[in-house]
Amino acid sequence: MDAAVSARENPGLMDHHATTGHGPARDLAEVAFGADFLAGLPVDDGGDPSPRQLPGVVASRVAPTPVAAPRLIGWSDELAAELGLARPPAGSRALDILAGNALAPGMRPWSARYGGHQFGNWAGQLGDGRAITLGEMQGPDGRLHELQLKGAGLTPYSRFADGRAVLRSSLREFLCSEAMHALGVPTTRALSLVGTGEPVVRDMFYDGDARPEPGAIVCRVAPTFLRFGNFEIHAATDEHGLLGALFERTLRRFFPHIDPLAPEAPVAWLGEVAERTALMVAHWMRVGFVHGVMNTDNMSVLGLTIDYGPYGFLEGYDPAWTPNTTDAQGRRYCYGRQPQIALWNLARLAGALRPLGADDDGLQRALERYRDAFARHHREMLAAKLGLLALEDADEPLLAELFALLAAAETDMPILFRGLSGLPAGDLHMLLRAALYDERALDAALTARWQAWVERWLARAAREQQPPAWRIARMEAANPRYLPRNYLAQQAIDAATAGDDAPLRELLAVLRRPYEEQPGHEPYAARRPEWARHKPGCSALSCSS
Hints:
3 domains; 3-stranded mixed sheet; alpha+beta; 5-stranded antiparallel sheet; 16 helices; globular
């Protein structure tokens, strides 16, 4: 089932696939970019991309740096239809725009200034070091969309970097952005992936082995890319007037139901951001997604998954797993800690709102909304994953034994949950053999424990007196069959590096329908092969672009 059906079946899933009618496809080069979020706010308007400290502004006007030989590697037909855009032909001005070589009418590019807490420590000014917003365009349904190029060149916030991105990280972001949307997870989107024809030197694992790699640019799309850090930087530098101006502009544009001038506005807004964040993280836990770098500068105020860096999907169930080599020792951002870290990040945003007159008691109440919302969504989604109407307190032992069994031997969580929907008609032993990474662990004792658990679970489901077909549909709508596993992305990266874009297109097509059975595409649903266990890009990744 697709994510829209998933949302209808499961109260914990959001149906953000519903769209209004799409107009005729337009040439991006002819689209007028009239709106400008920065209008009236203080900006660094000189166009100088030299990295430097820039107090007193919210952003800098800066143009993308042109590239040598743009080539369209990836294109999201689905997002393009929602935006009313036509696929750009080779050599077209539209392709030049997506590569940073040209601008459409009304575009006034800019990069945002923000700060952030990175791995728990305040990092000061950060900002869009390799992302440049082209502008805002109106879709056929009247909504505004911000188009942003990632990897488009030097900005005042690039610090010691070059503002570029490599193909491997760009392809991963393009692929996962669209896959997460299909999964029903709140996310930014990706319209295009363009090869630059220029090499970019990167030290993938920060071990002194820097090498040239193919460069690429992703066109990211969202209502806004505002982050917690956009507000933190102004509070940290005592730019309280600027903080208030940004706060008012944000609410009037994206939260119009909250009066930004009302005394309770900061608390009301934080509460809404908290609830949106709770829903997003509950979805992450449902599909086994691990962000990898949950710094406050990577947290969207709209509750969207943003900045796909060293992410991964839980394969062998391990709450302490992180795909980020930078986090290998502390595991601050591992799968099991994501709900806790999201709350910690929200508390940093709460601190940034104090200069606006928010009282601590009110801010604490807003943070409690996160706790309540996450607990509610997480329980709803777990119930859906198990084909139950709702979880009860008496189900805790059943859940505890399930996760103990998943951890007892390396077990592929997505395969296991998806396969449970086929029981009791299916073969439990066959399911376990498909889900376990070492079939030798499937001894008589473990098999007996699984059999006993399945019998308890089916008995619990039977008490709700729902037809078996209802339970199966509910489970299949909550447990994806296909995920953008790292090894699949790496295979597409290897092919695209060699000039073959077909594997990326095929993989993206499969991931568009993650809840459906797709005959002939079973290899995309298999557990991670053994060769990928330690292959770079297939298991551990770094923050390197």
